[in-house]
Amino acid sequence: MSHRNTLDGQIALVTGAGKGIGAAVSKRLASMGAMILLAARDREQLAAVQQEIASAGGRAEPAPLDLREESSVAALAQSVKERFGRCDILVNNAGIGITGQPLHETSPAAWDEMISTNLRGPYLMIRAFAPLMIEARAGHIVNISSLAGHNPLKNGAAYSASKWGLNGLTYSVAEELREYGIRVSAVAPGSVNTEFGGGSKDGSWKVQPEDVAHVVAMIVTQSPQSFVSEVKVRPLRKP
Ligand SMILES: NC(=O)c1ccc[n+]([C@@H]2O[C@H](COP(=O)([O-])OP(=O)(O)OC[C@H]3O[C@@H](n4cnc5c(N)ncnc54)[C@H](OP(=O)(O)O)[C@@H]3O)[C@@H](O)[C@H]2O)c1
């Protein structure tokens, strides 16, 4: 697959772009010519990723966002509409993972935090950005789910529920938007080497963030007559 310049002129919005998978996806799409809007809460992290992309000759801008807040999502959508009038690629990647407790010991606050970030967040983003794509009669929405959205996750029921929910949302919205030329996909990685959920000491056996970025790059360069519903990405070796 030839990458450079394939996405020239396109605007890509990546949530959770300050680190981990989102940073890797942002760098990859920027290297293919897209202008990246780097969305997350931590402005210093966004500035650092922007700097890295600029040093490599790419284009990116910080787009501060708390996707738990409807007003924050609406403000970003308004500014993207006014400044660019389009959003070609939306990567709903931001997510949190609070695990380690059985559901009956999980507080309602932790449950709400999980669902509002991992499930309601992508809903708010699609609600805000799909109209721009519908106008353009084109677009890619890529939701970063998890193998935990297919498998049981002992002591991680709230996380697992958020990702099972995200898969249902993804497949349903794909049916709603395909008539507008908008392709909606899920990527479901297994363990990825990031700081997510506290990370772990030796992450070399895990899927690397760049591996997930490679899959996103593949999805958004799919030829126009087809679309990818979902890709599962597993570590080759078991821990
Ligand atoms: N790592 C894994 O093993 C793994 C496996 C399968 C799936 N995933 C999924 O992959 C995605 C990315 O995970 P990662 O490993 O890259 O995690 P990470 O390194 O912890 O990064 C998460 C990103 O999400 C952002 N974020 C969290 N809450 C947010 C909010 N309310 N508003 C806006 N941004 C928010 C964070 O930025 P701020 O805190 O600055 O806002 C950060 O940039 C998640 O959806 C996760 O569920 C990860």
Automatic annotation (TrEMBL):
InterPro entries: NAD(P)-bd_dom_sf, Sc_DH/Rdtase_CS, SDR, SDR_fam. This is NAD(P)-dependent dehydrogenase (Short-subunit alcohol dehydrogenase family). PANTHER family: 3-OXOACYL-(ACYL-CARRIER-PROTEIN) REDUCTASE (PTHR42879), 3-OXOACYL-[ACYL-CARRIER-PROTEIN] REDUCTASE FABG (PTHR42879:SF2). SUPFAM superfamilies: NAD(P)-binding Rossmann-fold domains. GO terms for biological process: monocarboxylic acid metabolic process. Belongs to the short-chain dehydrogenases/reductases (SDR) family. Coiled coil: none annotated. It comes from the Bacteria. It comes from Silvibacterium bohemicum.
